[in-house]
Specification:
The complex is a heterodimer of chains A (about 220) and B (about 260). With about 220 residues, chain A is mainly alpha-helical. Chain A has a single domain, classed as Phosphate transport system protein phou homolog 2, domain 2 (Methane Monooxygenase Hydroxylase, Chain G, domain 1, Up-down Bundle), CATH 1.20.58. Chain A has 6 helices and no strands. In chain A, helix 1 packs antiparallel against helix 2. Helix content of chain B is about 35%, strand content about 25%. Chain B has a single domain, classed as Rossmann fold (3-Layer(aba) Sandwich), CATH 3.40.50. Chain B is built from 10 helices and 10 strands. Chain B is of the alpha/beta class. A 6-stranded mixed sheet of chain B has the order 6-7-8-3-9-10, with helices on both faces. Classes of the chains: A mainly alpha (about 220), B alpha/beta (about 260). Chains A and B meet through helix 3 of A and helix 8, helix 9 and helix 10 of B.
């Protein structure tokens, strides 16, 4: 049916947008880890595509709402897409912020060592984004609930990294600028984890019809 | 909606249905239907053609009695009084349970006489009282302002939408508790449909309204409760909001999202 074709088209579009965001995050992280200024610039330039896709997806949702009056699971799907579309665009902006910090650090202090917890935090954030999208693709509420639970772990990494960076600033005030950029990266990663949690909560709403925001992990 | 839920007396005009089976000859049209239609609220019956919703609706005012070879088991009651007993006074019942059909069917009489017809039949003779009933009924059906200056004109000169609202006014004139509507707006343009829906919102709170509609959005807009029928069974009956956002049964979801039926 025409309407269901429109829905599957929308689904493809939002997943394509998500794939771009995942790719941008990978690149921004790699640019930060390997101090690759050109790769960082790639991420910054690529954000325009994510922005354009966000507009397309939103317009598609509005069109479906106006023309097809979706109900029940279809209505919940449109609402989920509208919300995660916003979250994905915000994630795109955050990857740009990470890339900017990566470019700065690459230029100024290419050899400075990162706090060891960064690796773990990066692994956890990557996994959360990937799982939240897998949860959407497979309508898997258990996987979505797991994403929500993992958010605390990421928060903990951020706190540890922050306190290590504070100590280092005290030891080596001349490195403060670069260290503060690293702190920014940890903050942006933590925000990306939050937004992945939002997507996971929306997936639970899509599957169950229940709004679990604010108490998803209970 | 015009009347807030706390003001509604759901025990007034309540229809209780218990274990109803209905047959047209050998063919069973309804299977063991039990439900409680809350009083003074709007209940929509939805489902694909032939699912039994109109048969069910017609049981409430015993319209099916006119169909040869039809029979029913189980019971319907209105405010505790039996509807389906052989001893029920059907004329009295139909005074309490009015009906509006898909195609408007005004009498070839004046607008005034169409509305006054029922009360006259039930013995109201005072001109003043009749005028009052006519005005009140036409007002509640959201038609008064359009026809107050031409009450003596023939009703057949009204537009389709106006004729349908006249039929609602005619049903209201005998002061029913329940109003049954079988696809009341399916032959009307969007503007007239909106007026019918406005009039349903206006009547909610004072009359129990049971409406059969194929227009899913109309069911969603006008009703408090929605019942989904499929192949003679009541599949799901719940708050309209629940049915249209998170129905419990897969069949309901498939039907309202257009995946079958």
């Amino acid at each position: 049916m025409h309407f269901h074709r429109e829905l599957s088209k929308l689904r493809k579009e939002v997943l394509a947008e998500a794939a771009l965001v995942e790719e941008a995050l990978e690149k921004a992280i790699l640019a930060f880890e390997t101090r690759d200024e050109r790769l960082a610039q790639d991420v910054i330039d690529g954000d325009r595509r994510i922005d354009a896709m966000e507009i397309d997806v939103e317009e598609e949702c509005l069109k479906i709402l106006a023309l097809h009056n979706p109900v029940a699971v279809d209505l919940r799907f449109i609402v989920t897409v509208l919300k995660m579309n916003n979250d994905l665009e915000r994630m795109g902006d955050l990857t740009v912020s990470i890339a900017r910090r990566a470019a700065y650090v690459a230029k100024r202090d290419p050899v400075m060592e990162m706090p060891p917890e960064f690796k773990d935090m990066i692994r956890a954030v990557r996994a959360m984004l990937k799982q939240s999208l897998d949860a959407l693709i497979h309508s898997d509420e258990d996987l979505a609930a797991e994403v929500c639970r993992n958010d605390d772990e990421v928060d903990q990494y951020k706190r540890t990294i922050n306190s290590q960076i504070r100590d280092r600033i005290v030891e080596r005030p001349q490195d403060a600028r670069t260290l503060l950029k690293m702190m920014d990266v940890a903050r942006h990663l933590e925000r990306i984890a939050d937004l992945s949690t939002n997507i996971a909560e929306d997936v639970i709403y899509l599957v169950r019809g229940e709004i679990v925001r604010h108490y998803a992990t209970e | 909606m015009a009347v807030s839920d706390t003001q509604i007396d759901v025990s007034r005009g309540r229809v209780v249905v218990e274990g109803v089976n209905f047959f047209y000859g050998e063919k069973q049209a309804l299977f063991d239907i039990s439900m409680e239609i809350p009083g003074s609220m709007v209940t929509a019956l939805i489902g694909p053609s032939g699912c039994g919703k109109s048969t069910f609706l017609r049981c409430i005012n015993r319209m099916n009695d006119l169909i040869e070879n039809s029979r029913m088991s189980g019971s319907f009651t209105l405010d505790g009084e039996p509807i389906s007993d052989s001893g029920t006074n059907v004329v009295e019942l139909r005074k309490k349970v009015g009906m509006v059909f898909q195609k408007s069917n005004p009498f070839p009489k004046s607008i005034h006489d169409n509305v006054a017809y029922g009360p006259r039949l039930h013995g109201v003779n005072s001109r003043e009282v009749l005028d009052e009933i006519v005005e009140k009924s036409l007002t509640r059906a959201a038609l008064w302002d359009e026809v107050k200056d031409r009450l003596k004109d023939n009703a057949l000169g009204l537009s389709g939408g106006q004729q349908q609202r006249l039929c609602i006014a005619r049903a209201l004139a005998v002061d029913p508790r329940v109003l049954l509507m079988d696809e009341p707006a399916s032959a009307l343009d969007p503007r007239s449909t909106a007026k019918i829906e406005d009039s349903i919102a206006e009547l909610r709170g004072d009359y129990t309204i049971v409406i059969v509609t194929h227009n899913m959005q109309q069911a969603a807009r006008v009703s408090d409760k929605t019942a989904f029928f499929y192949e003679g069974q009541l599949i799901e009956f719940d708050d309209t909001e629940t049915i249209f956002t998170k129905p419990t049964k897969k069949q309901t979801e498939d039907y309202i999202t257009g995946r079958f039926g």
